[in-house]
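Problem 12. The chain below contains 263 residues. Write out its predicted structure in token notation.
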Amino acid sequence: MFIIPQVDPEFKSLIPPLSQEEREQLEQNILQAGKCHDAIILWGGIIIDGHNRYEICVKHGIEFEVVDLPLTSREEAKVWILDNQLGRRNLSAAAKIELALVKAETLREKARAKQSDAGKARKKGGEKLFPKLTKPEIESIYVHEAITGGAGVSRGTLYSYLQIKEHGSPELLAKVQSGEMKIGTAHKLLTKEILKQLKRVDEMYKFIEAAISEEIARRNGVDVSTPAFKENKQAIQARLAQLTVTLEELMAKLKDRIANKPA
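Solution.
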């Protein structure tokens, strides 16, 4: 019985897309061979590996084989897809980290579901399968270890990538995710950019501080006793307070990044 493969948008989105060059090379290889060497992998008739091969074969009327894996659930199918992609060597470190992050969240959701079932079982005298961790940071360490292990990167590389993802520009992140720029290089650029921002904020701080100085105002012939000056001073002081908070937050983040970056 011939199975017509189905495309699941969520499953397909888990797989990093091929570049235009990679897609063209794959199509050329299949056309030259006149067949698809690798089978399309399915779960319950849904493609979990081989979306590009399937599309190319259908486009050119080329026969292909299918293998339907006996996975037990949608979550298991998602984990299989992610593990399969993580095993490929042509992915950038950033792409592997993204896959490992998705895998960690998938496993977390699966654990929550099992924990909920276990809770129901405990009410009936069942065994507690998922003991609650008393410290959230312990769970964070375990999750990070799972992510770095799955992606094949160090904790430092994971830390740097997450910082780039959170604070970097869209252009910088795009270069890292495409593999055009290494994570370490991008992180150094990000640190330099933050230092520039800190310098600009500090300059603004000093400028505003000088602007509300009554002594400087008197030197410039400004009457500091007028209501207009006092109102302007209050508005500037409020803005100065906001800048002070911003500066302190940025400095704290930068110091933490430099002092506590994982090895």
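Discussion. DSSP finds eleven helices and three strands in the chain. Students who got a different answer should revisit the alignment rule from Section 12.3.
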